[in-house]
Specification:
With about 1050 residues, the chain is an alpha/beta fold. The chain has seven domains: about 200 residues, Rossmann fold (3-Layer(aba) Sandwich), CATH 3.40.50.300; about 180 residues, P-loop containing nucleotide triphosphate hydrolases (Rossmann fold), CATH 3.40.50.300; about 160 residues, no CATH class; about 45 residues, no CATH class; about 90 residues, no CATH class; about 140 residues, no CATH class; about 110 residues, no CATH class. Helices cover about 40% and strands about 20% of the residues. It contains 40 helices and 35 strands. The strands form seven sheets. Strands 4-3-5-2-6-7-1-8 form an eight-stranded mixed sheet, sandwiched between helices. Strands 9-18-13-10-12-11 form a six-stranded parallel sheet, with helices on both faces. Strands 19-20-21-23-22 form a five-stranded mixed beta barrel. Helix 22 crosses helix 23, helix 24 crosses helix 26 and helix 32 packs across helix 34. The C terminus is likely disordered.
Amino acid sequence: MKHSQQLCLQRMRAIPAQIDYPSELPFSAKASELVELVRDNQILVVAGDTGSGKTTQLPKICLQAGLGRKGLIGHTQPRRLAAASVANRVAEELGAKLGKGVGYQVRFTEKASPETYLKIMTDGILLAEIQQDRFLNRYEVLIIDEAHERSLNIDFLLGYLKQLLTRRPELKLIITSATIDVEKFSRHFSNAPIMTVSGRTYPVDVRYSPLIEKVEGQFYSDVIIQGIVEAVQEIQRSDRSRGSGSGDILVFLATEREIRETALALRKAKFAATEILPLYARLRQSEQSRIFKPHGGRRIVLSTNVAETSITVPGINYVIDTGFARISRYSLQSKIQRLPIEPVSQASANQRKGRCGRLADGICIRLYAESDFNARPEFTDPEILRTNLASVILRMLYLRIGEVGSFPFIEPPESKAINDGFKLLEELNALDAGRKLTRAGRQMATLPVDPKFGRMLVAANAQSCLAEMLVIVSALSIQDPRELGGENRQKAQESQQQFQHADSDFLTLVKLWDDYEKQRQDLTQAQLRKFCKQHHLSFMRMREWREVHRQLLLACQQLKFRLNRESASYEQVHKAIISGALNQVACNYEGKTYQGTRNKKFVLLNSSSLASKRVRWIVAVGLIETAQTFASMAARIEPEWIEEMALHLVKRECFEPHWSRKRQQVMAYEKVALLGLTVIEKRPVAFKSYDPIMARELFIKEALVNDELQLQSNFLSRNREFLAELTKQEEKLRRPDFLVSERDIARFYEQSLPATVASTADLRSWIKQATPADLSSLEMTEQKLFDEKTAHHGETNYPDAAAINHNQLKIDYKFEPGDSRDGATIDVPLLILPQLRQADIDWAVPGILRDKCIALLKSLPKAWRKQLIPVSGFVDEVLPLMSANDGELLDALCDQIKILKNIAIERGEFKEDSLPPHLRVKIRVVDDKGRELAFGERLADLQQQLDVKNEDSSTAAGSAGFNHAIEREQLRDWDFDVLPDSLQIGDELVLIRFPALVDNSSSVAIKLFAEPGRALIEHQNGLIRLYMLRTPQQKKIIKKQFDEFQKKHVLKYAPGMQGLV
């Protein structure tokens, strides 16, 4: 309290007793009225034209109203130069010493003392003070000057003060503006009173001279230039007609290129005693200063819109307005600050017009129609509607002054613009998922730079490259000190070649800084200026660069950041840059075009050291969209650096998980994308890190089920043997997964292996620690995999051998659909081939009978088939009624159809050839050594092929060593027992032979035959011969009677011999 009282006394003593107002200023006439308005109102809006004196006289009016004693009079200006010049002017008028009663503060300079009662500053300085003094308790009144410019800072200040004034009713606010939409300010502050003061201006004659040609929406630059030349000629005629001197002309153009082309055209026009000067923001300081120097004759200044408000060009009598300007607009879609050429608003056009009515009557020639002017928007959109809101949001979150959406902006931005600002802060890792400031975000909020650059500094501290990044960020925060524009572009580039880094424009800045600092320490001030001139460097901007660097260094020191003493590596520096430019990384797309995030494409400006190279990956800054999107600076980077610095943003896609036999683990490919830009295309990764559960499943399936595991272990060997035996059983069933499926094996391992095992290395590690009981649980058994009924199903329905005529004939099973040997194949020794019947083959494999019957019935014509539906149900009904004793399967099936359905179907109606191969049992004829002699499906065809039906008994039996005691020769009487129907001969191979009497003319013999039909014929003749030998006299009668007997009865007894006898 005592300190505050002392400050009040010091200020009161410093305030002059007498305050005077220059009589020539329009504002002076309103001084008394304004003093009363200030005293009676908390908020006042003052509108005044240029030259009215509002900027310099309002602080004095506040003093006369009794303000400036209890607290400071704060007076903001949009620009540093204006703040300093206004402070000098006001101090001079008050008779105060600058830095004492009247002080000022701009970005790098502060002149004030405890007795200061008036502080003039940039609006950015006042914003920075809010961070330390949320209620601005130091101030008694605030004057926000040039509010009509509606910069981001001004709009934020006005919104903040609207909230603050309700908490501090003693605080007064004065808003000054040109006569542009002042009612909007009044409405924003609850209809605050407005005081309008006219400026000291002269009449301006506005002439419209529209350019006719307009092709496909674009003005040709040569048409514009011609219009300017003609307008200058019109001004010359006007001067001659009025008899006045040659006044200066200010021409407003949209771009630097138009300025250069127009200057060339005007010089070619050879106007007498005329000096032509360019004026734009990037122009060298020495060139800009020429417009303020005295001159003779006429001067034509060709300017961009900087001459509207930023720079006041003296001595202007005439204005030529093309009506266009580059307006900075942030694109929510591309996230790029665009600089489109747009028609200026009515307010801007009037500002341009006002530049020629300050000295005398003026003329403003507009190169567009009056109707065009009337159709234009009344005001230029405020900056808050044309820029990214990240910096505003960051400041608001740090100050904790409420929700952004409800903040009282004069013109609230759209919600999508607010969300876009939040998204940028999230990209910069300044916010967490709940949109609360992170540690990095809080640090960024205290750094007096753009949030992107603040993020670079925070990352630089972590990457141990703060020294380099301070140089880079401070350079990026100001206008480029390298003067590369204008006519000396080539010479400038050559003079700066020594600073250039081959791979990085950012390290070019570092090298330039190092060289400049060395020269600064070694040279005098004059020599340093000469050095700058020789290398086309702006001396003033180099000093500004150093000041910004100093300010940022102090801010970083307050955050306890560490300044690296050793030079940082290329990787460290550029990782830090990437952290603040994640949406500006890009890969080479085609030629000189780069594709960045969100599918934006851009090229590098020729001033970049990488412009002529094809670098695969870059990080860029300064993306600006004009007719094309350009990046002013870039550097080569590696995609892995992007991934590392954007871990919170990258999206990972894992695809094609697969078992790697080489790595013995489940691998996959990883695609890493940042904001739509693929950073890593196809990188092998361990799938376990993505999905440990699925990785374990694939490991079990591929490594264990498919037997790809490269590991020596007892349980694996035993399980392989066990599964090999099961596979044989499944071949019979033609159902590979019937006894044990891959799913069954997988389930077994899933239940037996720990959940952590997902690779060979995991399994090997577990085995080392496993107990014998654990290892035993990994060995397969029938009980663990399937029940008893399933286990024996193959043994009964798919036997390994068929019992035919007392022989166990081997059956092989093959499951290869499409192969001619697909299905079951019976091995038949040649010696027993004659004695087989087709029925023996048909019924050999019970497991296929049902499917075969169904297939046979489905092969019937529709007329028959529809009477047997459902076919499967009919088969299930008849199959139990059929057996091998019923003969061939097809005959037995026909018999059952006749019995159950009373339908007589001939064999020919069935399409046996249409049966799938696996339903037709094959026959493989082998010799005594197991070598294949013939292969086929039809028994009769094989018997005929091998001619076994015509073999006699000696060939069929005796040649193979098969003899029997029943065989005799030279029989003439019946001295033997009744012959049996058949005989079994042999041990390992049992042959069925049929005995018969054989006619040898003078005797008979008993021989064995392989085929019963042949035996029957031979036996008939042998009987006749034996009867005839016993009763020669009745030979003819016996022959005749036997022939008749044969005709009547022989078929009844075939093939049995006993019945025939």
